[in-house]
Design goal:
This protein has one domain: Alpha-Beta Barrel (TIM Barrel). Helix content is about 35%, strand content about 20%. It contains 10 helices and 11 strands. Helix 4 crosses helix 6. Bound molecules: zinc ion (ZN) (2 copies). One zinc ion binds next to loops. Its EC number is 3.1.3.15.
Length: about 280
Amino acid sequence: MNLTNYHSHTNYCDGHATIEEFIQTAIELNFTSYGISSHAPLPFSTRWNMEWDRVDDYLKECAEAKEKLGDQIEIYTGLEMDYLHEDYNPAMDKFQAIPLDYRIGSVHFLELDSGGYVDIDSGEELFKENVDKYFHHDYEEVIIRYFDAMRRMIALGGFDFLGHCDKISKNTSANAKGITQASFYKEIIRDYFETIAESGLMIEINTKAYDTTGMFFPNEEHFALIRELEIPVLVNSDSHRLHKINSGRKEGLKALVNARFDTVMELKNKEWTAVPIHSSYRI
Ligand SMILES: [Zn+2]
Ligand SMILES: [Zn+2]
């Protein structure tokens, strides 16, 4: 039934329950495998990232959950890692040295020419303030910089799948209506997915915002292109709360079926495996 999720935050970052509570909830919902992926440390403090001195405890707690509950569900330890710049990204030695089952690569910040970083992932209002302040109200510029950062992260590698790979569409389209339908955007997107296909990386269909906005990341309008390019996909809820771990999963699978996908990627015995999408999602 494709009951899996590999993007899940915990109280080691900005999630609202423990590792064990998330896994217990997944077991109650008959999930077959579950991946924990707190926000990896950054070189500065935020209200949502794990600190470096917490990593060992995080690994230990994941190992204890595997020991305790691993006979009921396959449990995997991951991290969601940020691309900040050429020297701080999922490929860096310090991240690669962490013994993990898998890694997510995401962009939540843009680097400023003057130094420092701007959060482009939080709410639409803060986003507008940041674009006004740091990018002279220029949404096109922010979109170009976002996809440039994603491309650099892809080129450097060091992770298994891209996190919410066009999430910039949410905050930009909320503030500049129709911008994702502009020709410049469509050109960037086509080229971007071609780059992903060449990289061999997987992408997640991130369903976190589906119940509030009706959006998946990547947006559903790109599913046909992703299918055409044969990019492997998995469906993840990016849950921060226990009641959200199954949110949007069925809808994501149905949307994939509509775009003629036959399989999704799941971890089985520690290997990423293409698993057929269950017939119940084909209605
Ligand atoms: Zn993220
Ligand atoms: Zn996340």
